[in-house]
Amino acid sequence: APSQEGDKRAGPIVLAAASMHDALEDAADAWARQGHARPALSFAASSAAARQIEAGAPADLFVSADEEWMDELEGRDLLVEGSRAVLATNRLVLIAPAGSNAEIAPEPGFALAEALEGGRLAVAETESVPAGRYAKAALVDLGVWNEVADRLAPAENVRAALQLVARGAAPLGITYASDALAAPGVKVLGEFPAGSHPPIRYPLALVAAGGHPQAGAFRGFLLSPQGAAILARHGFGTAERD
Amino acid sequence: MAGAPRHRRQGQACPVNALAFDIDIAVARPGRRIEVRIASTDSLVALVGPSGMGKTSVLDAIAGLLGPACGHIEVGGKRLFDAAGQVDMPPERRGAGYVFQDSRLFPHLSVEQNLAFGTRYADGRAPFADPAECAELLGIGHLLHRRPRELSGGEIRRAAIARALLRAPRFLLLDEPTASLDDARRQDILRIVEQIRDRFALPILYVSHDRSEVDRLAGDVVEL
Amino acid sequence: MAGAPRHRRQGQACPVNALAFDIDIAVARPGRRIEVRIASTDSLVALVGPSGMGKTSVLDAIAGLLGPACGHIEVGGKRLFDAAGQVDMPPERRGAGYVFQDSRLFPHLSVEQNLAFGTRYADGRAPFADPAECAELLGIGHLLHRRPRELSGGEIRRAAIARALLRAPRFLLLDEPTASLDDARRQDILRIVEQIRDRFALPILYVSHDRSEVDRLAGDVVEL
Amino acid sequence: MLTSAEWDIVALSLKVSLVAIAVTLPLAFALAWLLARRRFPGMVLLDALVHLPLVLPPVVTGYLLLLAFGPQGPVGSIAQRLLGIVFSFHWTGAALAAAVMALPLMVRAIRLSIDAVDTRLESAARTLGAGRWDVFRRITLPLAAPGVFAALVLGFARSIGEFGATITFASNIPGETRTLPLGIYTALQVPGAEGEVARLAIISIALSLAALVASEWLVRRGTDGKGRPVL
Amino acid sequence: MLTSAEWDIVALSLKVSLVAIAVTLPLAFALAWLLARRRFPGMVLLDALVHLPLVLPPVVTGYLLLLAFGPQGPVGSIAQRLLGIVFSFHWTGAALAAAVMALPLMVRAIRLSIDAVDTRLESAARTLGAGRWDVFRRITLPLAAPGVFAALVLGFARSIGEFGATITFASNIPGETRTLPLGIYTALQVPGAEGEVARLAIISIALSLAALVASEWLVRRGTDGKGRPVL
Ligand SMILES: Nc1ncnc2c1ncn2[C@@H]1O[C@H](COP(=O)(O)OP(=O)(O)OP(=O)(O)O)[C@@H](O)[C@H]1O
Ligand SMILES: Nc1ncnc2c1ncn2[C@@H]1O[C@H](COP(=O)(O)OP(=O)(O)OP(=O)(O)O)[C@@H](O)[C@H]1O
Ligand code: MOO
Ligand SMILES: [Mg+2]
Ligand SMILES: [Mg+2]
């Protein structure tokens, strides 16, 4: 990297989707325990990180929650060719506050509107935020989108949607399984059928403007079985990798 | 320093309750304690004394803007303050027509609005004159739509006098009202004060450094 | 209205360049045009006239705070303003010792700091007195650490006078300097002004409504 | 020029912001007056509380609003039961978030102006017969007008720009709580939607420019041009 | 009490905020003076530009900063080449974001105070020999002190709380740009980290409370308690 300001920040700079926080922190710890300089992990919305890369910010590795943004960067030749890979996969779940007695699971034509009982369905923003787009696709596929389209509570990101449910502001919500897994205050009512939405993939790639000598090795570590084990502990899947 | 009446013009023996001023207070100021006693049947009392002796402080105390340390204030038979009897009338109920040494016109109001400011609080008392007449008398009739910032020093002074008169006061506190006025204007104002003194028997406390004014106007002269 | 010298005390024929004041200006004010002509060899000229006629405006113009519409201003042989010759010296270079009608002490500075404010701009001219001496002379020596807000009206006036004197002025503009001062203080100040007039031959323009003051001090009297 | 969806966003933003500052103004003035003129125990605490929304990340403020004013929050449940006011997912929630974020700015501006009011003028008004309330209304308030105008401009601008607290507390519901910033945010998430972002940002700028010009005009009408009030 | 990671965040936040307001203060004063005292073409535009960061959602401001001050932006590339200043992923970027967000608040506060300065006092100072600069330094500036103090408090609080522009422009790098709000955001991503969120929020509150108390103390030392400056 042209200006790593070297010394102090020895590890590579990783820009990552906020929803990968726990898994990547664990992975970075494990990596550091092997005697490497710990990478600097910066968590933000995938869009914010991608725009920084577009602006020429010297990041080394990008982990996106969203293939669209990775496509965008790839199209602009901002990534190291051949370094793109799928790091993890996720699943979509229907959640309710921990104390809820709702009993409903996602399936074609399920009675989602009734289950809301006048409340709203917490989701990530359905036009822009990846988790929201998957949720919309799934609801359309299951044939209930029209009933709930005007009953949504779109949130800034998946975590915020989770909070709306945890705080009882919304009786039901749709999030990633990885988010719901560890969250107190919510329970998973059911998983959306895998075919009801496009596969949820978290791609990663080396950034061309970067060039930290360790970046490639850390990428390899994340994709290694050891990395996969850490991701799995946090509710992510890795099966779909090529 | 307690001031004692020095000379009287219309002095007769009077029952105590006919006193225009019955004041006996001490006011604390940094490094100075101002004591004053005024007991006068004359409706116009002059308050004189060197600069910095406490004339303005006494007027402030009578107007209710400065709390005396002790004593009592009675003007026109009305008890305004009494340390013993726990009387301390708020300024707005004392009915003073106070011409401040520093004028204190309201900068956000036109001269006309300044003059009218106190009228609505007259409690049914009739003012001495109607506003237009009073403004003419003081030579500020052509300035009614100006703001205080656009007035000369003497014009400000006259507007301050008009404002105090037009509030239909129960008594007047005049702190060097003729300062920065030319001789002709000064005579006008002295004449107005005399008329108010004689026609309405309004208690008037008059601060001035001008011996001739004091001699002309005052019954009692209290020296600080 | 052009004011013409009314009476002279030390009047002799002089060459033009020995004029203390050579002023011929017109100043525009809302609804009024103030014209004044002063050509005097006397170092102390009194400016008199009814309230609102424009005395303060003339002083402001000489100090450089108000632009005259036309004419010229020369004080002590120095051209301060000349509409024709495009001269318009900024106020800070004119060297006026201006006692404002409204005093204008700096509220954020102590009296002492107010007095010292102009000293550093003296350009090597020696002030008439040292600050402590001047303060004693004006009876404000015990107030040096106070703020202007904690002064009486007359104390403010005296501090304003001291500030103007201590800046080592090239000429003085005194707008009713003795307003709101008792007789003794007034005499003190008149004596100081006389001394400055006689000892330093400083041009002084003196605004006053007091005929006796004017008679005592002034060579020329200009009436607006 | 604007699509109808964009018009809706603009109209909603205006409604939310105007309601927010209209409701906040009297409260801000009262708080500013208290802080400027009174000494009381807990004063610093009140001061700190007013400043809180400035210091905390907006998302946290939104989260705290959710805890307090949400359907199960202590205030929210009472407001709903007694007044029938619902904040969650409702434009009133967006207005509440905007109001809370604008409050500290408005209080500071007004307080500065109240501090600058010459209390000798208030004394003069009292000797003329005006009681405390009349003095406030006829002297203090008009003399503090520059601060009030500044508060309105700052508050309006802050409300028009408020994002984090709104989306966290009131969500991002088209027609209800999707104000301009939320619309911009939504567009920003999508690659290649820079055009939409620019359009909405320009609308925001135009709105606030209009507000600025209007306020300068008001100030000039309401003062002598030097910040000294005429009314 | 605090973990060492938390201390780092606090120290970084303080550094970023203090540098931001220290750098911004002179600029804010100059802008406030210009807007208060001069009439010039483009004045309303300048005024609007100063207010922009208040009106736009912080994320947009961050994005615009990225375009201008990023490594390939017109200003950023020049700054890097000529001054060696890098903003991306660097605490200077966080400070720049905080400064830009604080600017409108600081300008407004100072402008209010400059408007309240009695120009007759400035005239008096000039007759006493003080040139324009000395009048400014010895009269205008000290008389505008209440506005400067208010600007410092508002600016500091806003800087301490700044989130959207920072994360968008300077990213969320631990030890470099992860200030308190970004730390809070990061903790909010972790299920069950409400405790951490609360800790960091309380630190924010404590910091701003300390700043408030300090400023009140400064104001009281610097003024007569009524907002009238003594220095
Ligand atoms: N606001 C104030 N704070 C502190 N001290 C004050 C204040 N106002 C006046 N003083 C002091 O109190 C004393 C009396 O002041 P006061 O204004 O009553 O005098 P005065 O007789 O009216 O003088 P003058 O003729 O100069 O107006 C003076 O020594 C003055 O310095
Ligand atoms: N700032 C101002 N704006 C507009 N008009 C003004 C302003 N100051 C004074 N005037 C007007 O200009 C005229 C001259 O005022 P000036 O202050 O020069 O009078 P003066 O002779 O000093 O009066 P006084 O003896 O009352 O102080 C008056 O009619 C006054 O109303
Ligand atoms: O990782 Mo996201 O962009 O907060 O859904
Ligand atoms: Mg007095
Ligand atoms: Mg005058």
UniProtKB/TrEMBL annotation, chains B, C:
Signal peptide: none annotated. Keywords: ATP-binding, Nucleotide-binding. PROSITE patterns: ABC_TRANSPORTER_1 (PS00211), ABC_TRANSPORTER_2 (PS50893). Residues 14-224 form the ABC transporter domain. This is ABC transporter domain-containing protein. SUPFAM superfamilies: P-loop containing nucleoside triphosphate hydrolases (SSF52540). Pfam families: ABC_tran. InterPro entries: AAA+_ATPase, ABC_transporter-like_ATP-bd, ABC_transporter-like_CS, Molybdenum_import_ModC, P-loop_NTPase. GO terms for molecular function: ATP binding; ATP hydrolysis activity.
From TrEMBL, chains D, E:
The keyword Cell inner membrane applies. The chain crosses the membrane at residues 12-36, 48-70, 82-103, 139-157, 197-219. Keywords: Cell inner membrane, Cell membrane, Membrane, Molybdenum, Transmembrane, Transmembrane helix, Transport. It is a multi-pass membrane protein. Its main location: membrane. InterPro entries: MetI-like, MetI-like_sf, ModB_ABC. GO terms for cellular component: plasma membrane. It is found in: Cell inner membrane; Cell membrane. Residues 10-215 form the ABC transmembrane type-1 domain. Pfam families: BPD_transp_1. One of its GO terms (molecular function) is molybdate ion transmembrane transporter activity. Part of the binding-protein-dependent transport system for molybdenum; probably responsible for the translocation of the substrate across the membrane. NCBIfam families: modB_ABC, PRK09421.1. Belongs to the binding-protein-dependent transport system permease family. CysTW subfamily. This is Molybdenum transport system permease. It comes from Croceicoccus marinus.
